[in-house]
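Build the 3D complex.
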Amino acid sequence: MGAGHSHPLHVHGHSAVHRLAPEAKVVAVFAFVFGVALTPREAFWAFALDAVALAVVAAVAKVPARFVLTRATVVAPFLGLALLLPFVADGPRTEVLGVAVAVEGLWGAWAIAARALLGVTASILLAATTEIPDVLKGFERLRVPPVLTQIAAFMLRYLEVVAGELGRMRTAMTARGYDPRWLWQAKPIAAGAGALFIRSYERGERVHAAMLARGWNGTMPELRGAPATTADWTRATLLPLVSLTAALAAALIART
Amino acid sequence: MHHAVVEVDDLTFRYPDGTTALDGFSLTVHAGERVAVLGPNGAGKTTFALHLNGINRARSGRVVVDGTELSERTLTEIRRRVGHVFQDPDDQLFMPTVREDVAFGPANLGVTGDELQARVEAALDSVGMLAMIGRAPHHLSGGERRRVAVATVLSMEPSILVLDEPTSNLDPASRRELTTVLEGLGVAQLVITHDLPFALELCPRAVVVDGGRVVADGPTHELLADAELLHAHRLELPYGFDPRVVQR
Amino acid sequence: MHAPDGFLNLGTAVATGAISAGAVGASLRQTGQTLKEKQIPLAGVSAAFIFAAQMFNFPVAAGTTGHLLGGALAAVLLGPSMGALVVTVVVVVQAIAFADGGLTALGYNVLNMAIVTAFGGWVVFRLTRRVLPATINGISAAAGLAALVSVVLSSMAFSVQWLFGATFAVDFATVFGAMVSVHLLIGVGEGVITMLAVRAVLAVRPDLVAGADGLDLDTAEVRPMRALTIGGIVVAFVVSMVVAQFAVDAPDGLERVAEDTGFIASAEDHALDSFIFADYATAGIENETLSLAIAGATGTIVTLAVGTGLFMAVRRREDEPLDHQPVG
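Done.
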């Protein structure tokens, strides 16, 4: 159920987007997607404008279009769901290519597709231009409790280690002829998961000992970059400005 | 006579389930000395090592580092002076980049800014890993991680390095690189190892630990030439290795 | 279930975001003391474990595979508050760093995948533990049931959110029926895996399982669970089929009953001003009252489960795992 990709999305670079302070980028992307969500679904032009804005950001950041598109496939299942809507939705129907579909279903499908695609593209661009430790630092500066960002940092550091151990476990099982096809054959996998938890826990204790041995006293030292400047914030606002003003304009137009 | 960097006096320690781990453990290490710690698995070598930086607290006995006795008050200072390199470098490299891992120790001690950067670079340089400063730890090979792990404690400018099985899982070339690095460091070293040729090459002095205490203490080549001693403590020379033939 | 942006409307996103933030805040306060010391690296590595566990697939039937959510598992192993925090971190990082799940969807994704599963699962776990013996098998079975119910609760929560924030025109009863019945089946897989995984941990390191208080260590040898497992799966499948059938048929069946007893008002009467509820969720005059009734019941159950879980977590002191000797 939506396990998603596990390879980080960072694309190395030194563009203006890369160099922006992470907290500014995080706020900008959230605000941008917020604007997209606010946009009335009839305003095709607004969504088009939003897409252009994202394309500009991608160009400045030198993130290749193919990279973005392949990563964006993570929303494919939901797009599939959206495509079903014209067929299962209630309400008045119309004819498209000789097939009777619900009007509301068509609108619904469009709205979901547009917002999901714009949203995932914005997320991908954020991840591509910001190293995860910097994202976490950005969160900290946005007053997210440091405990949470620290947990996230450790998680990311040890994800590959734990996934590697899991992979080795599965290899060992397969090498001994294990090829489960039904749920009741899953016991070794589940037992492996339990063993993996124990190993992870014990590693966590050793890491803690290593931190203590290097003088850790409960707070992480400040080791990353400088806080966002006014210039950073100004530049970052450009993106959400597009979607928010477009949304506002579309809403006003709809009123008149 | 060099002054004593570490003095361990009659330590006893029990595991939570009651088994005795250390039973009157005593050892003295002098400045600049390199001492190999040999012994069978379960002898208490790692358990002892974790007393030196206060991770384990003994039931009785004392630990004195650079003349300062280990206590709740002196914990941070002792941890600066005792640089412990763990058996698994992944336990020790927990920051997103090499630079931050090496900076972690001195930063906790209050070092900042240019001085911090200088310490980080010096530590990495002394292990030959300066080029890796911006890398993520999981992108390094086993040998590289080992050396970076050494750098993470070197940056704290310790009085003694405690290394736990430093050559395990290293290929011969990495092992050679590590040996060269360690030989070039002037700091005192306590090297827990099963790798007897490595012990002979790096450490003039060796102690044998068994049953929670030190049972032999002397020049490494003498200990390794004592077949009875080795046999009594489940130690064995590698095939074809003759310590008497090795020239120092 | 990492919903993308646009699935539910903004109002719902903001409201669920506020609820999630509150629950996370409460969990932070609860674990704050223990987290300050040892638990941060532990929580981080546990989060890596949950993340990895969500990635691997286990067989369901004829080679098709399923994935874990892990909320109930995290709660049983780490305690409800820590479990909720750990899965929250996983979900948020998946959205931010891997673009898996919309940024504006974080409110309900976190709520459904972390908060509801951890706290709701915990409640079911504790209740079941009172009934089952305090043995390894008993605790594992309780964990398995908790996991199954947590998945169902999660889908129920999503259905209720959908009622308020749907952006497409399918009526609530259909969505509810489809979501819950599918998740009952998914929940069976999650339940079995959780049960067996907890059992594996209990057999070796019972001190690491937060929910294992009162484990009778004298009977701590692990006895075979085959009969229990197979029996459990069969029962769960049967129950799923029955309930799913009921859920799918419900609108028609219940409607007839309602009409007969005069419960449903006449066609000209609207039960409620539907400005709060998305128009489409209550589409169809005849279904409106029924939808609201189901939604009301569902919402109550989910709120009760999560609320009780939160309350229990706050009241109970999080037991610290026993210190064991360092490796070596």
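The beta strands of chain B are 4-14, 20-30, 34-38, 60-65, 68-69, 82-85, 160-164, 188-192, 205-210, 213-219.
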